[in-house]
Amino acid sequence: EPFYLEGRHVSASASIGIALGSTDGTPEDLLRNADTAMYHAKANGKARFEFFNDAMRERVVARFEIETGLRKAIDTQQLVLHYQPIVSTIDDHICGFEALVRWNHPERGLIAPGEFIPIAEESDLIILLGRWVLHESCRQMAEWHKKFPSIRPLTINVNFSSRQLKDPRLLEDVQFALAESGLNPEFLSIEVTESSLLENTEQTLTILNRLKAMNIRLEIDDFGTGYSSLSYLRRLPFDTLKIDRSFISELSAGSDGLDIVKAIVEMAHSLRLGVIAEGVETDEQLCQLRKLGCKHVQGFL
Ligand code: C2E
Ligand code: CA
Ligand code: CA
After folding, report:
1. 281 lines ligand 1 (CB under 6 A)
2. Ligand 1 pocket: which of 121, 132, 159, 250 to mutate (most atoms <8 Å of CB)?
3. Ligand 1 contact via 100 beta carbon (within 6 Å)
4. Residue 282 gets which letter from DSSP?
5. Positions in the chain short of pLDDT 50
6. Residues in Cβ contact with 271 at an 8 Å cutoff, skipping those fewer than 6 apart
7. How far apart are CA 22 and CA 54, in angstroms?
8. 243 touches 275 (CB < 8 A)
């Protein structure tokens, strides 16, 4: 039942974790299992119940191992960056690279970001990891600029999580990474996903505007998957849309994918935004993208 608190109507809900006892378990085990199940109930939307099962326990342990291991990995140089080229469809030249982080685990070998980024995003670990990625990306690109002065300078794309956009030290970090590496800010491009824009509002707008004022490029990652209102494209200071690879994989003549990509490219052009197609794997996809006027591509091809 709702109740009154200092003249306000308050409703409290409850999340319940249920664990069944066995003869060989201790009371502590039982409580811990119930607790684990309760956190699952909360994570799955709150105000509900969940029964404990062993898979939950295994996930908690795996997660704990990643969390503690990752903290150490950042300090001991176990993270590495792989660079995926972003290529012009007009002259086939490389225009820049996207920095993609991997964890070179001493026992498990290279671990893909999908396995540890979501866990890092639940705590301040993503701030520490993001800071390392940013510094290393800027350092590497500045080094390449110095090493190859005769070629057109390349841009480095760095992924930012929504939690980083809320970090009060972010601007300071970015300034420091640029100053330390000597990279010209116009060659740094920051990627944020459409869905991370949904979570943040005024604060994000302020941060994005400040980054833009520093002459940094801003790109929307995984465009088309965030279910957001398109009005933000006018309000937020973005330079480029990156079309999500799910649309590119459906690119063949007469398919829905083709119509969607065509619409996105046309919309971007009329809003004076750049477009990068992600996840280009085949010559056919590249050929279609060229025909649609998409000027930049990225992918296994
Ligand atoms: P993303 O930003 O959308 O990055 C593109 C992902 O697609 C990369 O996976 C890349 O290897 C993969 N990919 C590239 N070309 C192709 C292709 O032609 N076909 C297919 N099937 N896949 C392709 P990866 O490296 O596993 O990264 C996954 C996600 O992890 C990234 O998605 C990004 O959201 C996140 N991530 C990676 N590095 C960082 C980082 O430094 N910071 C943050 N916050 N997130 C990162
Ligand atoms: Ca990205
Ligand atoms: Ca993407």
Report:
1. yes
2. 159
3. yes
4. S
5. none
6. 233, 234
7. 13
8. yes
Please give the Cα distance from 298 to 82 (Å, whole number).
14
Q: What ligand 1 atom has the least distance to the C-alpha of 112? A: 26
- List Cβ neighbours of 264 (8 Å cut-off, separation of 6 or more): 223, 224, 241, 243, 247, 275
Q: Is 135 close to ligand 1, i.e. is its CB under 6 Å away?
A: no
**Whether 259 contacts 278, CB under 8 Å:** no
The one-letter amino acid at 167: D
In angstroms, how far is CA 142 from the centroid of its own chain?
23
The H-or-E segment that residue 50 falls in is strand 49-51
Span 218-244, pLDDT tens digits: 999 999 998 777 888 888 899 999 999
Q: What is the CA(90)–ligand 2 centre distance, in A?
A: 22
Average pLDDT, the chain: 93
User: Does the CB atom of residue 213 touch ligand 1 within 6 A?
Assistant: no
Q: Is 70 exposed, middle or buried (0-12, 13-18, 19+ CB in 10 A)?
A: buried
Question: Nearest C-alpha to atom 4 of ligand 1 is from which residue?
Answer: 100
Question: What is the biggest distance separating any 2 CA atoms in the chain, rounded to whole angstroms?
Answer: 74
CA distance 277 to 245: 7
Cβ–Cβ under 8 Å, residues 292 and 262: yes
User: How far, in Å, from the CA of 298 to the mean position of ligand 3?
Assistant: 10
- Which atom of ligand 1 has the smallest separation from the CA of 281? 18
Tens digit of pLDDT for each residue in 203-216?
888 999 999 999 99
* Atom in ligand 1 nearest the alpha carbon of residue 121: 44
User: How far is residue 24 from each of residues 20, 21, 28, 31, 34, measured CA to CA in Å?
Assistant: 12, 9, 12, 14, 16
pLDDT in tens, 114-146: 999 999 998 899 999 999 999 999 999 999 999
pLDDT given for residue 200 in this prediction: 62
